[in-house]
Amino acid sequence: MADLLPAPATARALALQLSDLEAGTPRQWYWLEIAAVQAQSPARRHAGLWLLRHAGIALLWPWLHRAGLPGLALYERSIAPLWQRHAQLLADGAMLCTALPALLAGFARLPATQAFLAWLLMLGGLVWHVVRTKAPQRPAADRDDTETDEQPGPEDSVGLTGQLLAAGTSPGEALALIAALRARPDSAWASLLPRLPALAPPPPRARTRRMLNGLGWLAGSLPGTLLISWLPSPFALPVATTACALLTWRAKGPAGGALIVLTALLAYACGRLGHVL
């Protein structure tokens, strides 16, 4: 997905855009601190910044990683599992939509029947994974509407230093933490979290999870389904299996791609054996 997006913008432009996206939270000031030490760049429009503003951090996670933005590791724990699930669904969709048509081919079923099964699996799997995606569990502190917090909000304090002071951090330690964040943003965030728990990003919303799960399934199942439907029968299944293996190779590594080919071959062999017997 990241290869389909524009080349990464500068670190400063990305940090400022992320600060706008996180307005009203301590992460707004977190990104402003990081942006303050990034090199200046000529002001110009960038398609990636527009996408980031409208799609959000979770959906553009691979692209942000490619940009090498300092401090992005703060979101690793909440977003990386979603993309691992995305890659797994891609592999599952590729395997299911090639192995079962290969089984039918082994039983000498018509190409139209193979294509019908592939479309049925693709659409049925899409609905299944989108509907079954649940909303993330919110922290207890976010669900407690009766809790009173006398600390100032992110917009009421001056910078991340003010947030740390309001959370009970000593002035010297707060200044040291901010200096470390500016110097080593990729590692300093781990020292900030215990002093300022509100800095931790919340889990992505259910809508984002559904979109990533649906896109993962489609990315694995749709190419093979289209190839099985469009290409002539002698070539459709081998080409579809090869394409799905390459997609899975890219998402899950060589072992994942090889597993797609092996599963399709075994399914076809089982079908031939059952047809002969």
What does this structure look like?
By secondary structure, the protein is an all-alpha fold. The chain has 13 helices and no strands. The chain has helices at residues 11-21, 26-36, 47-55, 61-67, 76-106, 111-132, 140-143, 159-166, 171-183, 185-195, 206-230, 233-252, 254-276. The longest helix is centred in the N-terminal third of the chain and has 31 residues, at 76-106. The two termini are 45 Å apart. The relative contact order is 0.16. Mean pLDDT is 86; it is low at 1-7 and 141-155.
Instruction: Give the low-pLDDT segments.
Output: 1-7, 141-155
Number of domains: 2
Structural class: mainly alpha
Report the radius of gyration as a whole number of Å. Answer: 24 Å
Which band does the percent of strand residues land in? under 5%
What is the average of the pLDDT values?
86
**Oligomeric state, counting identical vs distinct chains:** single chain
Count of extended strands: 0
- Report the biggest beta sheet as strand number plus sense, adding barrel if it closes: none
Helical fraction: over 70%
Shape: elongated
SSE string:
HHHHHHHHHHHHH
Supply the key terms.
277 residues; mainly alpha; 2 domains; 0% strand; disordered N terminus
Summarize the helices and strands and which ones pair or pack:
Layout: H1 11-21, H2 26-36, H3 47-55, H4 61-67, H5 76-106, H6 111-132, H7 140-143, H8 159-166, H9 171-183, H10 185-195, H11 206-230, H12 233-252, H13 254-276
Helix pairs in contact: 1-2, 5-6, 5-11, 5-12, 5-13, 6-11, 8-9, 9-10, 11-12, 12-13
